[in-house]
């Protein structure tokens, strides 16, 4: 079922979606672990979101409410992040401990990531001025209807255990816990098609 308030987003509107994600994730424990200073966060977070989610824009996986109060970036079945997009970030390096921590986190995340075709929710965000109105849920239901119609599962990593009840309401089930100290935990969640 299509919601007239939900629009498909392409590359030409990416900046508006990145603005939503930057506002929405400003207090996210995992994002702020990596970029704790405001200038770091404001510079790197939108670039990171785009690097991971770029192929969602190019393959019909990005939705927003028409007023750009909320958006979701999904990677469709069979579509993955391009490692070249990550490499192109040219992130500052030189800290072997931080690099090892990032590699350990990626390895732990890979343990839970489904191998079969699935819709991967990379980010779901609502501008804080509009939070608490069910907008994220509207976007989630919209894409889950698409997944269900095709008989395809969905997967995500909740960036806070406090988000588990929200995603559980939409049929996601916790399949583990990603813990790589001192990074805040991530909660892998899987949803069978209905």
UniProtKB/TrEMBL annotation:
Residues 109-194 form the N-acetyltransferase domain. Gene3D superfamilies: 3.40.630.30. The keyword Transferase applies. GO terms for molecular function: acyltransferase activity, transferring groups other than amino-acyl groups. Keywords: Transferase. It comes from the Bacteria. This is Puromycin N-acetyltransferase, putative.
């Amino acid at each position: 079922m299509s919601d007239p308030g939900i629009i498909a987003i392409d590359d030409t509107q990416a900046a508006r979606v990145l603005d939503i994600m930057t506002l929405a994730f400003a207090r996210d424990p995992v994002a702020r672990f990596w970029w704790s200073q405001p200038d770091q966060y404001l510079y790197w977070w939108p670039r990171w979101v785009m690097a991971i989610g770029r192929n969602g824009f190019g393959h019909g996986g990005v939705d927003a409410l028409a007023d750009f109060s909320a958006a979701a970036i999904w990677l469709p079945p069979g579509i993955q992040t391009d490692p070249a997009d990550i490499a192109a970030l040219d992130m500052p390096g030189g800290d072997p401990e931080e690099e090892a921590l990032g590699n350990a986190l990626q390895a732990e995340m890979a343990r839970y990531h489904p191998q079969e075709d699935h819709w991967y929710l990379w980010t779901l965000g609502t501008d804080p001025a509009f939070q608490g109105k069910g907008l994220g849920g509207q976007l989630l239901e919209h894409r889950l209807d698409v997944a269900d119609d095709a008989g395809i599962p969905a997967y995500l990593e909740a960036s806070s255990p406090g988000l588990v009840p929200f995603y559980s309401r939409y049929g996601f089930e916790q399949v583990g816990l990603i813990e790589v100290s001192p990074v805040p935990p991530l909660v892998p969640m899987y949803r069978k098609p209905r």
